[in-house]
Amino acid sequence: MKKRKIPYGLSDFKRVKTENYYYIDKTEFISKVEDEASFLFFLRPRRFGKSLTIAMLEAYYDVYYKSQFNEIFKNTYALDNPTEYKSSFYILRFDFSAVDITDYKQSFTNNINLKIESFINKYKIDFEMNFDNPIDNMSRLLIYCSQNSMPIYILIDEYDNFVNKLLVSDMKSYEGLVTDKEAFYKEFFTILKVGTSGNDSAIKKMFFTGVSPLALFDVTSGSNIGKNISLDESFNDMVGVTKDELKQMITYYNLQDKSDMIINRCDEWYNSYRFNEYVEHTIYNSNMILYYLDSMIRKDKEPRDLIDVNIRTDYSKLKYLVYTNKKLNGNFDLLNQLIQNEKVTIDNIKSNFSAFEMLEISNFKSFLFSLGFLTMEKDIFKIKLSIPNQTIKKIVAEFIQSAYKNIDFNVRIDDFNNHLSEFAINKDLEVFRYLNQEAKAQSCIRDYIDGENFIKGFLVAYLSLNQYYEVKTEFEVTKGFVDILLNPILEEISYGAVIELKYIPKLTFITPINLK
Fold it and tell me: CA-based, 20 to 30 A from 63: which of 226, 309, 329, 421?
């Protein structure tokens, strides 16, 4: 029998289930969602499988798919354990990742109108559209559905996508979008709230996905009816891949002979996410796992670049987060700690805070957690946060490099990579002399130098940008810990290196030692 295809990049649940794609059964979470409050927010980092979850709920609850239900949900938990409300709602689904921020008001207007028009055509409703006023269309449609006993389930995928993009590019426009009395984005959520109130209200359920709670907080006065289940232990594994699920995929695709290698690599690069401090196990990023296994199955080898380009997100424009009065601030110091594999603590992850309060260190920690830059573990009374894996370490390193560039400290990456390739191929130590010279030469960073800690953070950040080595800090060896370990990624590189730092005021020695 032909093996199922890897659903890399697919978020169409019906297609995944009916076109012979491999599916990790997450339908058991449908009943858990149904047992929760009627209006829910669910936040996860990018590329974790949120869109497929939205599509799963749509296929399960939509009256439109009632006749196809058994085919779509064959071989799933949900088929054998149906709930009270399966195939009983009219689904109005939005995807705000489609909103273009270059003309966000018009694009948002078009997006809402198109989805309403699609709803009308899908369910053959006699309804007249006013294309100049999407809020009016929403309001009148909800009244129509209420009057005609059409219970609505609102699904919004990536509710904060375009507002987050606006946040990093135009803070003033973001402020107007979420705070102005007649801000259309805020007004939209107000209409949804109205649609849930009163007897025989049209909207019976809502489920929104997103990345961060910023927009959720900043439009609260427009819509304060949703429960955020993102940190609920019951929903830790609703998206993502558990280790057991990864092992099942390895077995299904007959990769058992490479099982240890695959698991070790995935642990190092894609694992360690935890979204509730009391959950014992961690989970992998879905997209990363599918990207990796797709290469292993089709090519019988790892992808040359272990990081999928689609995972990378340009957060470099969030420079205001690490600057105060044109100086690097405490948020940057936090990143410098984290890149060195240090753990930081927080009393609680904040599930609600404003984009205008991001300079508060606890908010910044919570924001990094929501982006997937940090993972959590319980430590008696506090929560410990740390960078989860090598993929995120590289993304944080890119963020740090961008921060350096904004204070005119700019190591020439091409030169650096050329030196590092010579080290990887010919054991040439010039790369370390080069980094040492750059750190000494850049007078603009003298205000930030606090000894070995700065030098170590600077080294780890720039070394983490390479494609040849995994960078590990405070790595345990037989006689203690090494400051920095370079562990080869590619099979062609047969050796690594350790770097021990010795700091003397005014003079820093970086001593590389070849590993035999």
Answer: 226
Mean pLDDT of the chain: 88
26 or 102, higher pLDDT: 26
Distance (Å, rounded) from C-alpha 270 to C-alpha 489? 14
Residue pair 251/294 in contact (Cβ under 8 Å)? The answer is no
- What is d(CA 61, CA 446) in angstroms, rounded to the nearest whole number? 60
Q: Which CATH architecture has domain 312-407?
A: Orthogonal Bundle (1.10)
DSSP secondary structure string for all residues of 367-407:
HHHHHTS-EEEEETTEEEEE--SHHHHHHHHHHHHHHHHTT
Domain ranges of the chain: 13-235, 243-299, 312-407, 408-516
* 12-21, 240-249, 375-384, 434-443: segment of lowest average pLDDT: 434-443
Domain 13-235 coded CATH 1.20.120: no
In sequence order, the 6+-apart residues with CB closer than 8 A to the CB of 92 are 115, 116, 119, 141, 152, 153, 154, 155
Supply the pLDDT for residue 352: 82
> For residue 421, which of 360, 382, 465 has the smallest C-alpha distance?
465
* Spatial distance between the Cα atoms of 164 and 51, rounded to a whole number of angstroms: 17
